[in-house]
Amino acid sequence: MPYAPRRTTFVPTSTTGASLFSSSTQHNTILASRIAEKKQELESLMQLRDLSSNFATQMVQLQEKLATLVDGTEAVALIVSNWDSVLRAINLASANLVTREEARKTNTQPRDPVNGKSVVDPKSQLPETFVRIRIDKEEGAQTSS
Questions:
Q1: What's the gap between Cα 72 and its chain centre?
Q2: Rounded to an integer, what distance in angstroms lies between the CA atom of residue 137 and that of residue 145?
Q3: What is the full per-residue pLDDT of the chain (145 aa) written as tens digits?
């Protein structure tokens, strides 16, 4: 039986095998380097996610601390705003004490009959007693009557 002639192309196996192996090795090396880059990128993204989460938590804590600080600042501002009234009241009370002291020095004081020393009333050495009365309640009571 006659056989049909076969087509064959002659390619030297030594160069073709080497070039295929070399091409395959280059391809694998490129893929391995891309995989390594992607792994590094994934690791960096995971670190970024963790750091972002920590940053968000710290920002929430800072917000809570600032809210507390604002509340404390408002309380301090209220106290400082009252100091003017407190100092005026102390000044009024002390002013009467000074006038009593001057009057005591100019007037003759009663003397102790036993030792002859002047007797000082302990109440005269204290400032005036103030009573705090809310004005706004009185005004509300007067307007309702």
A1: 11
A2: 12
A3: 566 666 665 555 555 555 556 778 888 899 999 999 999 999 999 999 999 999 999 999 999 999 888 888 888 888 888 888 888 888 877 777 777 667 666 665 555 556 656 656 655 566 666 666 677 755 555 555 4
Identify whether the C-beta of residue 111 lies closer than 8 Å to the C-beta of residue 119.
Answer: yes
- From residue 108, give the alpha-carbon distance in Å to each of 79, 98, 100, 118, 124: 44, 17, 13, 9, 15
Distances from the Cα of 83 to the Cα of 14, 67, 77, 89, angstroms: 101, 25, 10, 10
Token pair 């009571």: residue: 141
Cα 15 to chain centroid distance, Å, stands at 73
Which is it for the CA torsion 84, 85, 88, 89, positive or negative?
negative
Phi, psi of 79, rounded to the nearest 5 degrees:
-65, -45
Question: Could you tell me which of 67, 64, 120, 131 has the C-alpha nearest to residue 97?
Answer: 120
111 SS3 class: strand
